[in-house]
Amino acid sequence: QVQVVESGGGLVQAGGSLRLSCAASGRPGIIYHMGWFRQDPGKEREFVAAITWSGDNTDYADSVKGRFTISRDNAKNTVHLQMNSLKPDDTSVYYCAVSAWGSADRRPVSYDYWGQGTQVTVSS
User: Fold this and answer.
1) Within 10 Å of residue 51's Cβ, how many Cβ atoms?
2) CB count in 10 Å sphere of residue 23
3) For an engineered disulfide with 6, which of 30, 41, 48, 118 has Cβ 3.0 to 4.6 Å away?
4) Which has the closest alpha carbon to 9: 52, 45, 38?
5) pLDDT digits (tens, 9 = 90+) for 28-75
């Protein structure tokens, strides 16, 4: 079993920045592909960004490309999402996800473990 814990959400004004962090634990020595998604009430979970276990490859949704940066620290098995130039449309609950056996792609079904989510609110 893998535990996934997000942190760093909050309230920020439009144009501001936030940094989300995600720690995955439970299987020492194993490094995973990881991703970030977001979801609004009544809507499907939306892909935001993903990073391979090595950190060599990243992927971003078009809506966040150039504003968000995903990175990782494998020594701590953590992933960060630096969010700059935030817009009110970025308001959502953000979820960190771990792909233990699949790939770091854009489909929620590719991820095996999920965090509880952290609220990001961007005011206009």
Assistant:
1) 24
2) 16
3) 118
4) 38
5) 777 789 999 999 999 999 999 999 999 999 999 999 999 999 999 988
